[in-house]
Amino acid sequence: MSGYVITYFPLRGRAEVIRMLLADQGASWTEEEVQTADWFGGESDLKQQAVFGQLPQFKDGDFVLYQSNSILRYLGRKYGISGGSNQESALIDMVNDGVEDLRVKYIRFVFFEFETGKEKYESELAKHLSAFERILSQNCNGTKYVVGDKISYADYNLLDLLHWQLHFFPDCVSSFPLLTAFMDRISSRPKLSEYLKSEARNKRPIMFKK
Questions:
Q1: What is the SS3 assignment for 156?
Q2: Shortest CA distance to 172 belongs to which of 142, 117, 129?
Q3: How sure is the predictor about 1, in pLDDT bands with cuts at 50, 70 and 90?
Q4: Nearest partner of 71 among 122, 20, 130, judged by Cα
Q5: d(CA 195, CA 201)
Q6: b/e map of 10-47 (b: 16 or more CB within 10 Å)?
Q7: Under 8 Å CB-to-CB from 126, ≥6 apart: which residues?
Q8: Which parts of the sequence belong to the GST N-terminal domain (predicted)?
Q9: Fewest beta carbons within 10 Å, which of 29, 67, 68, 177?
Q10: pLDDT given at position 2
């Protein structure tokens, strides 16, 4: 066993991309669930321990790490999927930051603007997705990954982000052939495909609400 432990709520949220990466890389991990009532009710000691008062928490043996993107970068380096050169690593970071920007917009929309801002969010979504379509087109004509010829942690993060968008906007990638093919290609990787179809994953909602 690798000794990996993911501590998070019983949902996909910001821990899901970590699970996807580990599954695709053939790693095993255990889950420690934190109930939302305990966390927000102040009954969880873990909230006091968390560096920024947030989950997920990730353990690699005795090493403890917080912040989902820091965890991704750590695993990217550990599994050799963070770029083959300084330039590739920088581009992967750039794409990952772009994913984070849109993820934050999505979270704001769901929690604060769902009733009043859905039309506006959807109208702007194509502009955001077109940036990722363009990135794919610049690497092997969109036939491989976001950067280089090897999967990176940013690929998993982009795939997870697209899953989030499709939850409310099921046709949002239909006009982006490279993104559509990217989703199919990454999702069909044998180990990742098995995880994406698993009961453990599919019983978890994406977020707290909606």
A1: helix
A2: 129
A3: very low
A4: 20
A5: 7
A6: ebbbbbbbbbbbbbbbebebeeeebeeeebeeeebeeb
A7: 172, 175
A8: 2-83
A9: 177
A10: 55
